[in-house]
Structure formats: C-alpha cells, structure tokens
Amino acid sequence: MELPSFADLPVAEVAPGYRLRTYQPGDESAWCRLVNECIGGEYTEEECRRELTGQPWFDPADLFFVEEDGEAVGTACALRRPDLGAEVGYVHMLAVLPEHRGHRLGRGLVVAVLHRFRELGYRSAVLKTDDWRMAAISTYLGLGFRPRMTHESHEGRWREVVERSGAR
Questions:
Q1: Element (H, E) at 123
Q2: What are phi and psi of 126, to 5 degrees?
C-alpha cells in the first residue's frame, strides 16, 4: 500500500490510559514479544539488534511503542530503506496485542510513523500487509493509503478487500 503525500496528517494520539513513546535502550525484548505474537515469527533480541536497533542508520526516534502501565502493548517503525530512495519511507511491523485492539492504537502508531517521515523530509510512505489483516487495512485506508498493484493477482484481491472493509 502507498500513501502519496503527508498533507493533512491527523495528530498522533492514543486512547486515555495509554502512552505513545519512542525506543528506549532495552526495548528489543518488548519489540520481539509484540512482533512474534501479533505478526508471527521467532525474532530474538540479537536479531532485533542486528537487523534494526544496532544498525548505524537506526535512530531511537524512528521506533514507536504504545504502553499501558509501563508495558509495551503496540509498536511500529519508521524504517528507512535505501532501496526506496530518499523520499519514500517504509511503515514497518505494526503490531498491537489482541487484548488492546479496538482502541485505535494502531492508528496512533501509524500516524506517529508518518509524522516522523515528514519530519525527516520524506514525501510519501509505503507498507506491505496481508489481505486478511482487515483491521490494519481499514486503518491504512482511513489514513489515505491506497493499494499498490505489483502482481497480476492484486487487482481482484484488492477489490474484494476494499469491499470487505467498507471503504470507498
């Protein structure tokens, strides 16, 4: 999916009782727990450091968490990918624990990421998602993201997904 412009971004906010913050040293274990449980995989703290937080390009202001009572319950990352060029940011690994969904936490995280990209001088954003992740897709569509047709199967699949989401 792609968001062609950061014009008219809403404020990044989360529901009462939750707090939006950026990376702090030691957050690798929380990131792994969230991503493994919500997206799938078996990330370890070492892999997180090797692929993300330990990279020379990593900036703590790029990795967001939502927490409740000091516990991280959601995350998303403003990933800088050189292969996308200097003007396109990549929304990476949006994850919110199931018991905290329904409070628009994912929306707050994505909006925070988009504001970060704009702050860095990017002009647009892209992301990848699965067509069965309807809550996330509804969030993305509501923020102005549109499907990117990069495979012959996408047009039909996206037509069905957009219809199921209720977006127009």
A1: none
A2: -130, 165
Looking only at the bridges linking them, the beta strands covering 71-79 and 63-68 are: antiparallel
Contacts for 152 with CB less than 8 Å, ≥ 6 apart: none
Cα separation, 163 vs 16, in Å, equals 31
> Superfamily for 2-129?
Gcn5-related N-acetyltransferase (GNAT) (3.40.630.30)
Give residue-wise pLDDT tens across range 53-87: 999 889 999 999 999 999 999 999 999 998 999 99
What is the largest distance, in Å, between two alpha-carbon atoms of the chain? 46
Q: Which two tokens stand for residue 62?
A: 């790029």
Asked if residue 64 lies in contact with residue 106, where contact means CB atoms within 8 angstroms, the answer is no
* Of the candidates 54, 90, 66, the residue with the CA atom closest to the CA atom of residue 15: 66
CA 21-87-35 angle, to 5 degrees, is 40
DSSP string, 43-67: --HHHHIIIIITSTT--GGGEEEEE
Alpha carbon of residue 97 to chain centroid: 14
pLDDT digits (tens, 9 = 90+) for 115-160: 999 999 999 999 999 888 888 999 999 999 998 877 787 788 777 8
